[in-house]
Amino acid sequence: MLERLKELAVRREDLEARLADPAVYGDGRKLAALQRELKELAPVVEAGRALEAAERRREEAEALLRDPELKALAQEELAAAKAEAEELRERLKRLLLPRDPNDGRNAVLELRAGVGGEEAALFAGELLRMYAMYAQRRGWRTEVLSVNETELGGVKEAVVLVEGEDVFSRLKFESGVHQVKRVPETESSGRIQTSTATVAVLPEAEEVDVAIDPKDLQIDTYRSSGAGGQHVNKTESAIRVTHLPTGTVVTCQDERSQYKNKDKAMRVLRSRLYRQEREKRDAAAASERKSQVGGAWRSEKVRTYRFLQSQVVEHRIGLTVHRLDAVLNGDLDEIIDALAAADQARRLKGGGE
């Protein structure tokens, strides 16, 4: 650990020197990458320095134990220094865990109504609102890339870009099947209905991440359709992009401009292809491993929203939160923090990335 800390301290000094060079400011992408790496290194290096200081205090206290007049004071200082050093070692173990290289990226959030008809679409709409409010709480920016609404205000499918600091590192835990148990407003007999919606969280891919040959694309235009909007069905501004080698299809019809719809569709396509490539790479590297990030949790029921009990049950870690309204209003940090801590504990035990 000490050798690794020394390497990181040297790397931090190198980054600081490179950022002091005015030439780097001419390349925005390179500048952002250097700043991001420096930010990630800072807490590790600082914790390493604090550990060194604690170890020095421990050694000094042990030396003072030989002095009868200072022995009692030295014992107190020794105990405090040992406790601090142990705490810092544990913190450094967590900080030195391999970081998902996508954690610092923006995220493309895809929601789809599942089982339950109109009630499932209404639930998907509530999840869309929940994530929008969570993003607002975190100071993130959201942009709707595509949405297909029902006449009653539900959402059949929505794709949203979420931009900000460490977006993917937080939202990646939301992937999976979300279930709601409640009495629908349209249910006259008062029976509880179970409906579902699926959430997929993709790290936003940049053009340099995925090489797309224009010859591999089939681009179709058509008239927008769906609920609401005077622009609907008047011009062929909607776009359908098909990636022929993989059969991946992305549609976008939210913008009046055909060009803007194509740009949004390409952003989603890049992210989907990036995820596919990443999952192939992960499977090839460790086919026997099932990690949350890799998709094992994505295919399971991950969370249930129980309206009668005002509960949110997070099945992956056995957590029950008795604040349903707060959660649906975007107060997700308690759940996401617990999921992140469980993932971290699993990796510390050698469960893999």
Detailed description of the structure:
The protein is of the alpha+beta class and 353 residues long. The chain is built from 8 helices and 11 strands. The protein has helices at 2-19, 28-64, 71-95, 117-138, 167-171, 258-285, 324-328, 333-348, and strands spanning 107-113, 141-149, 155-163, 176-182, 193-203, 217-222, 238-243, 248-252, 301-306, 311-314, 319-321. Strand 2 and strand 3 form a beta hairpin. It is flat. Residues 227-233 and 285-299 have low confidence and may be disordered.
Unreliable spans are 227-233, 285-299
Count the beta strands.
11
Question: Total helix count?
Answer: 8
- Rg computed from alpha carbons, rounded to a whole number of angstroms: 25 Å
How big a fraction of the residues is strand? 15-25%
Structural class estimated from helices and strands: alpha+beta
Q: What does the main sheet amount to?
A: 8 strands, mixed
Concise overview:
By secondary structure, the protein is of the alpha+beta class. The chain contains 8 helices and 11 strands.
Keywords:
353 residues; alpha+beta; 8-stranded mixed β-sheet; 3-stranded antiparallel β-sheet; 8 helices; flat
Produce the secondary structure layout.
Elements lengths: L1 H18 L8 H37 L6 H25 L11 E7 L3 H22 L2 E9 L5 E9 L3 H5 L4 E7 L10 E11 L13 E6 L15 E6 L4 E5 L5 H28 L15 E6 L4 E4 L4 E3 L2 H5 L4 H16 L5
Parallel strand pairs: 4-9
Antiparallel strand pairs: 1-3, 1-5, 2-3, 4-5, 6-7, 7-8, 9-10, 10-11
Helix pairs in contact: 1-2, 2-3
